[in-house]
Amino acid sequence: MYSFLTLSAKPNPDLPPSGHWDGRAIYETMTLAPILTVMNDQTYTHTWQAVKIKAMIRACHEEGKSFVWAIGGWSDLEQTILPEQIDTFVGLVVDLLKQYGDGVDFDWEHLSQLAGGQRNPNAQQQLSTLATTMFRLRQALVKAGMPEKVIGYTTRFNAFVKSSTDIGFPAGFNSDGEGLAV
User: Fold this and answer.
1) Could you tell me the pTM of the whole model?
2) Helices (H), strands (E): how many in the chain?
3) Radius of gyration of the chain from Cα atoms?
4) Three-state SS at 70
5) Exposed e or buried b for every residue in 98-120, given b needs 16+ CB within 10 A?
6) pLDDT by residue (tens digit) across 135-163?
7) Spatial distance between the Cα atoms of 123 and 154, rounded to a whole number of angstroms
8) Which residues, 6 or more positions from 3, have their beta carbon under 8 angstroms from its beta carbon?
9) E strands of 20-97, at which residues?
10) Residue 37 burial (CB count, 10 A)
11) At 71, is the secondary structure helix, strand, or coil?
């Protein structure tokens, strides 16, 4: 089971934001507040959501299942993080996983193709940033004594897409949406 987090403080499924991450926080999608604020709320502003998430985590663990946070999604930023933001981002993920969850799944859907169907002009930088982020996150998790934490990547194509040709690619399911043959 997993719960969506975003880089954008204002995700929008109708028009995903085009900028890069603000570098301040990873945001919880129901409250639009930083996830660490939501989960450690002492003011009771976001307690209603923290209670739900903690109950999901507990239910997963009671059934012997993992709770993996998904970061991204269709409504999140079309440009993810900049190379110089990787260490800040990794630090926030490690801080979250020290407290809650069994891993993270990167669901950065616009790495190669923007929401409107056009090619992402920063595709190579975005793909390189994803790879470097995953590598540095693994290193940081091992260093923090959490080598068992899951790091995943969800490709753009999923159960909601009948054929890759429906969303602008020339052949049906010959790629993961980021140009990698599957």
Assistant:
1) 0.85
2) 4, 5
3) 16
4) strand
5) eebbbbbbbbbbbbbbbbeeeeb
6) 999 999 999 999 999 999 987 655 455 66
7) 16
8) 28, 53, 56, 67, 69, 70
9) 27-28, 68-72
10) 17
11) strand
